[in-house]
Amino acid sequence: MKKHLVTIIGFLLFNSSPIIAQTEEINTDNWVSSPGVIGTIILGVILLGIFTLITVIKTKKTIHTYYKISRLKNITTIEEDLLSLEIPEIGQILENRKKTEKVSLDEIEKNLISPYIEQLINISSRLDHQDIDEILNERYKVLSYSLQQNELGSDKSPNDDKGMITYVNNDLGNPIYDDKRSEKIKLKTDQELVKIVITYIGASAFWLILGTLIGQYIGMKFVWPEMDTISWLSFGRLRPVHTNTVFWGWASLAMIGLGYFVISRTSNQKIYSTKLAWRSFWLINATLVIGNICLMVGINNGGGEYREYIWPVMLLFAIGLIITAINYYKTIATRKVKEIYISNWYILAACVWTIILSIIGYLPFTGLGETIIQGYYMHQGVGMWFMTFTLGLVYYFLPSSLNKPIYSYSLGALAFWTQMLFYTLIGTHHFVFSPLPWWLQTVAIVFSAGMFIPVLAGTTNFLLTMKGSFKSIGDSYVLPFLLVGVIFYFLGSTQGSFQAFRFTNYVWHFTDFNVAHSHLTMYGIISFLLWGSIYALLPKLTGHEPKQINIGLHFWLAFVGLIIYMFSLMIGGTEKGLSWIEEEAFINSVKLMAPYWLWRAVGGSLMFLSHIIFALNIYQIYKKWSINKIEVQ
Amino acid sequence: MINLHKDHESLLTIIIVVFLGLSTVIAIIPAYDMQEKVTPLPKGLDLTTSERNGLKIYISEGCAACHTQQVRSIAMDNKWGKRPSIPSDYYYSKQRLSFLQQSPSILGSERTGPDLTSVGTRQPSDDWHLLHLYNPRIVVKESIMPGYSWLFEKKKKSAVSEKDVVINVPKEFMNDDKYDIVATKEVLDLVAYLKSLKQVDLYNTSSPEFIPALTKKEAASIANEANNLPDGEQLYIDKCSACHQLNGEGLGGAFPSLKGSPIVLDENHDLMIQIILQGYDARAEYAVMPSFTDQLTDAEIAAIANHEKTSWGNKAPTISEEDVKKVREYLKTLTP
C-alpha cells in the first residue's frame, strides 16, 4: 500500500514540473494542459488503473474458479446429484425399487433407476445397491424432518419455581426505530479529568447553539434582508461572529476536551496539570466573549476570514493553546507505555502547528503580502487545526467503539506526514486567477490534488477498520456519526481538491458553492466526528446515557439538514457561476438564488434543531452525573 | 536511528521544524517579497483622510464578506474593470489600518454583491450611494444588501442646518413629514472611499490580458439581431437600471425618468448619445450621471439607446452603431 502511494506522489510531482514551466501565458488553447485538467486526468488514470487492476484480478479469479469447478464436477456430479434429489423423487425411486425387488438387476438398471445411480455404481466401487438404498432412506428422513414446535417443552406454561426472574418486560419495542446497544462499560477515570472533559464539552455545546443560532439568523437575512436594522445584528458584523464562534467555541473546545481524555488514556498517565487545563479553558472562553462583542460593535481586525478578532483578543486564545500544548506534551512525555499512540501525533501536531499558524497569521504584512498570508492562514486554520486534531480523535474513538485495533498503523503515519506536507502548501488556492503570483497559485493547485493521498489513506484506513463490523454500526448510536464523518471526509476533501482546479474555479469561485463546501467539511466532517466521539466517550466516563431516541433525532436532523443545505447551495452556486460566464446582468445572479437561499434556511433550521437536542443530551448526562457525584461523596 | 513512535522529543522537533520550513517557503518569503517589491502605480493616488476613514467603516461593517475587490484575469470579470487587477493596485489601500488592525482583506472571497474595484467609475453620484446605503431597495428593488440606517441621523426638519447633507428618501420608505434623513460623517467618508475606487490607467499598454470565457457568448437578442447589436436589455439592467430603474421611471428627486422623456423620444438622437457618452450634470435637482465613453462601445450604446427608445411605452425610431460613432468622433474634435 505504502509503495503504491509513494509511486503516486512521485507521479504527481513528476507531472507537475512541466506544468509550472508552461503556464506563463494562458489562453483557451492551454486549458487542456492546465494543472487542473491534467490533475483530473491523472486522477482519472489512477481510478482507471485501480479499476482495471480490480477487473483483471476478478476476471482471473473467475476463470480460475470456473476451471476448478468444471474439473471437480466430473468427480462430484453424481454424488451431488444424489444429494440434490427432492423428497418426491426419492420417494418415487424407493417405491420403484421395492416393487422391483425380485426383478433382475439388469432390468432395474435399464428401466427403473435413474441413470446416474447406475453410473454411480459403475464408477464407484465403494457403493452397491444396498448402500444407495441406505443413502436414499437417510436423505428421505432428513429432508422430510420438520419441527413439531414442542422440542423445547414449549407446550407447558412458563413457571418460575425458584424465583430467578426479577424483571418482566411487556414492551414489544416500536416499529419506527431500532433499539441500539447501550453502553455497559464504565471506565475508571480520574474524577478531575471527567470534570474537565464534561465542562469543555458543555461549553462547546453552548457555543454551538449560539454560533448556529446566529448562522441561521444571518442565513435568513438572504431571504428577508430587512429583518432588523440594528447595527450590531447586521449581516456584515454577525457573519464573523458565526464563523468564529463555531470555530473557536464549538469545535475547538470540544476537540481540546476530548483530547485531554485521549492523551491521558493512551499514555496511561494522569493529565500533567489539571490547573493548566482550567486556565486554558477560561482563556479560550474569554477570547470568544470579548472577541464577539468587539465584532458586534464593529471592531474588526481587517475582514480576513477566521482572523477577524483583533490581535490582543486572539492573543488570549494563543496563550490558551500554548498552555494546552504544554499540558498535552508533558503528559505524553511522562507516558507509562513505550509507544506514542498515533492519535497523540495528530493532536500534538495540531496544537503546535496552530500556535505557529496564529503567530504567522498576525504578522504585520501589508499589500498583497497580507493576501498571501490570508490564503495560508484560512486554509491551515481548517487543515492543520480542525482536520488534524479531529483525525487524531478518530484514530482513538473509531477503533475503541468497534472494539478492535485500527486497520493499519503505518497508513495512519503516512497520512500524517502527507497531511503536513501537502496541506501546508495549498492556501493560495483560495485566490486562483487573482493578482497573486501565478507560480504560487499553481503550486497550491498541484498540491491540492496531492491531498488525495492523505485523504485516501485516512479513509481507507477507517473503512477497512470498519470492515466486517458493519452490523455493529446499525447496533450502535455512536458509529453512524463516525461513518457519516468518514464518508464526508472523503467526499468533502476530494471535492475541495477538485474545486481548486482552474477550470472548476472558473465556475464556482466567489459563488455560494464555497459556502456549501465549507459546511460540507466543517459540519459534515468535523462536527459529525466530534459528535460521534462525544457520544462514545461521555457514557463511558459517567455511566449515564442520554435517551437513544434523542441521539437518533439529533443524527437524522443534522444529516438531512446538511444534505438540504449543501445541495441547495451547490446547485444554486453552479447556476450563479454559469450566469456570470454568460455575462448576464449581475442582479440576475442574485434573483436566481432566491429559492436556493430559502432551502438553505430550511436545511439550516433542521441543523439548528439538532443542536438543541444535542445540548439537551449533554445536559441530561451532566445532570445525572452531578447528582450521582454528590451521592458518592 | 530515531524512532518517532517512541521518541517524543524528536517527533515534536520534526513537526515544528518541517512545518516552519514549509510555512516560510510558501507563505512568509512570498509575502515579504510581495510587500517589498511592489511599488505604487505612477498615476495612483494615496487615499485621503476621509477616504481612509471610509475604508475603516467598510471593514468594520464587514462589507468584504459580500463584495470582492479583485478583477480576476478571466473574461467574466471584464465587466468589473478594464484590465485584471495587479499587485500595485493595492499599494495604498492595503496598508496597515491601525495599531490594532492589520492590512484590510479587501480582495474578498465571495461575490454575493457586485465587485467594487471600479465602483467609483461606474457610480460617481453621491446621491445614489447615500440612498443605496440608507436602504439598498430604494434604488435596486431586488437587492438583498442590508440597509445601514445607523450611519444616518433622523433629524427634525426644523433642526436641519445648511451644512447637513439631507437625502431624499421616497415616501414609501419613510412616511414621516416632520423628519429628514441626514448623512453622518461616517457615511460621507464611506461614500468618499467608494467613489475613490477606480482602476488606475497603466502607462505602458502591456497590462495582463483576460483569459477568454469557456463558451462564446450567444449573439444578441432577437430585437437587435438584424443590426448585430448586443442585448440592450441586459446592458440596461447592468449599467443603467440602478438609477433609472427597471421600469425606466427613475426616482423622483434623484434620477430622472426615461419613460416619456423628450430627450429619449426625440428623433434627433444626438443629444441622447452625447449624454450617455459624456455624462450629465446640468440639472441641480438630479444626481450626477457618469460618463460611459470608456465603459461602453458604440454598439453597446446603440443597443441601450434602442432599448430605452422602445420600452415602457416609448415608441421612437431606433439608431445604429454608426450614429453613435459619428457623435463620438464629433465630441473628440471638441476636446483636443
Give the number of DSSP strands of chain A.
Answer: 0
Shape of chain A: globular
Give the fraction of residues assigned to helices of chain B: 25-40%
Text of the CATH class of the largest domain in chain A: Mainly Alpha
Beta-strand portion of chain A reads under 5%
Computed structural class of chain B: mainly alpha
Write up what this structure looks like.
The complex is a heterodimer of chains A (633) and B (336). With 633 residues, chain A is mainly alpha-helical. Chain A has 2 domains: 33-143, no CATH class; 191-632, Up-down Bundle (Cytochrome C Oxidase, Chain A), CATH 1.20.210.10. Chain A is 74% helix and 0% strand. Chain A contains 22 helices and no strands. In chain A, helix 8 (235-267) packs parallel to helix 10 and helix 10 packs antiparallel against helix 11 (342-361). The radius of gyration of chain A is 32 Å and the shape is globular. The two termini of chain A are 53 Å apart. Residues 8-29 of chain A have low confidence and may be disordered. Chain B has 336 residues and is mainly α. Among the domains of chain B are: 49-152 and 182-196, Cytochrome Bc1 Complex, Chain D, domain 2, CATH 1.10.760.10; 232-334, Cytochrome Bc1 Complex, Chain D, domain 2 (Orthogonal Bundle). Chain B contains 12 helices and 3 strands; from the N terminus they run H-H-H-H-H-E-E-E-H-H-H-H-H-H-H. Chain B has a 3-stranded antiparallel β-sheet. In chain B, helix 7 packs across helix 11 (298-310). The longest helix of chain B has 30 residues, at 8-37. Chain B is globular. The termini of chain B are far apart. The interface between A and B is large, with 94 and 91 residues.
In brief:
The complex is a heterodimer of chains A (633) and B (336). Chain A is an all-alpha fold and 633 residues long.
